[in-house]
Amino acid sequence: MDFWTVMVARFPYFMSLLLKGAVMTVTVAVGALALALVLGLLIALFRMSPSRIVSGFAYVYTEFLRGTPALAQLFVIYFGLPDIGIELKPVEAAIIGLGINGSAYLSEVYRAGIQAIHRGQVEAALSLGMTPLGSMRDIVLPQAIRIMLPPITNFSITLLKDTALVSVVAVPEIMFYARNLVTETFQSMHVYLLAAAIYLAMTIPMSRLVAYLERTRRAWS
Amino acid sequence: MSVERPGPAGQQPLLRIVDLHKRFGELEVLGGIDLDVSRREKVSILGPSGSGKTTLLRCINYLEKPSSGRIYIDGMLIGEKLVNGRSVHLSDRELAKERREIGFVFQRFNLFPHLTALENVTIAPRKVLGQSTEEANDRGRRLLEKVGLGHKLAEYPERLSGGQQQRVAIARVLAMQPKLMLFDEATSALDPELIGEVLKVIRELAEEGHTMILVTHEVQFAGEVSDRIIFMDHGRIIEEGPPRQILGNATQTRTRAFLKKLADR
To answer: What residues contact B86, with CB distance under 8 A and at least 6 apart?
Structure first.
């Protein structure tokens, strides 16, 4: 049978399973993104803290997580933590692993965004009686977000693709189903191309969003 | 609250600076400043660039932390408090509370670009003083009208001229009803044709009796609105007195040389 005959014949079956996986892919990506967004901001603020200990901790945290493979981190969380009595379900381990890993990258995005805001903005806020925390929340972050949105969206695209990694801890996402289908049908080309197409269908709109954000980020009114 | 050398109510100066020093590494920017400013008094500080004028202003509201010395506003020690006779730095929250009393107008305006003119004026009253949006908007609108910008409430700073931006910045300071207003070369970043509109607003505030300290290069303006002019050089007060004396009959050669240089410009 030629390529297209197989594709047409098997398409509904392949897609039914791969799309099931896609739901899980999105779940893991969204969960990890949420964790990375919150944790990353915290780490960025730590990194800019006047306390050497606090900023030193943040420095080691980001260097360690960016300098080691996400796969190794994932294995430590899923296979290592049970040794000290912490057992996580595959999905939990995946979200926590990718979330922590992503927080190291996002903290640098936050830091660059915050530091791009002119010092005079903070000084004006402080001189009006705002606290450093209040001026960060009401003055700096609302401005920095405009700068940070394109790189954050870019990060989300990378994260979405990186979820393929978590199939190794048995999370039933796209690549997990794809591998099972190949084992079952031996149709590697068909299955993996379809899997790739599903990722692409999700990332293309996101890249368009980045392009849009980059076009509009300079105008305030 | 600790009061050094307390006087009868009303006689205590609004601002008292005692032996203020500021060093940046090896460089001594302020070398022992003593200065009293009374309520409703208008003081202008003149001096060559690098003489420490701006640093002095920034120390008063603790944007720069003094290396040593004390600053009091209305008897309240700024930036520190005395605990068992020892001075301790204030927490962020305590410092923020003290800064409400001191308005600061920046050379480069420092308006918040993501907020409209009205929001720039109302954000601190809402967030810091806890005013309702209606109350803050109502007051903000009146303040912007006062500085001649009642028709620009909804504009973002980037759509305003430099002079208009600085007037919004002044309204923003007024909204906090500070006891003391500091102007750090408020017209230096403006095109010449926009300086007048800002000086007019400052003059009105002076006439209303606001206590203010102006760091400025507008010597003539300083002479007209000030009760006292201070001349600084190399981090010290070289000479001070009523405008007529300083501008017309300075005793120090450095003061005269500086004024002559400005006049020759």
So the answer is: none
Strand, coil or helix: what is A15? Answer: helix
Amino acid identity, position B68? S
* A143 at B interface, C-beta within 8 A: yes
* Whole-angstrom distance, CA of residue B265 vs CA of residue B256: 14
Domain positions in chain B: 104-177
Window 86-125 of A: residues touching B by CB (8 A cutoff) are: 118, 120-121, 123-125
Contact criterion met (CB below 8 Å) for B4 and B19: no
Q: State how far the Cα of A173 lies from the Cα of A184, in Å rounded to an integer.
A: 17
Query: Secondary structure of B62-97 in the HEC alphabet?
Result: CCCCCCEEEEEECCEECCEEEECCEEEECCHHHHHH
ipTM of the complex: 0.92
Check CB contact of B152 with chain A, cutoff 8 Å.
Answer: no
Q: What is the 3-state secondary structure (H, E, C) of B191-206?
A: CHHHHHHHHHHHHHHH
Phi, psi of A68, rounded to the nearest 5 degrees: -125, 155
In chain A the domains, ranked by start, together with CATH numbers, are 3-216 (1.10.3720.10)
Interface check B165 vs A, CB under 8 A: no
Whats the size of chain A, residue-wise?
Answer: 221
Could you tell me if B131 and B119 are in contact, meaning their C-beta atoms sit under 8 angstroms apart?
no
| Apex A186 CA angle, A181 and A191, nearest 5 | 50
SS3 (DSSP) at B165 = helix
Angle at CA of residue B118, ends B114 and B123, nearest 5°: 70
pLDDT tens digit sequence for B54-107: 999 999 999 999 999 999 999 889 999 888 888 888 999 999 999 999 999 999
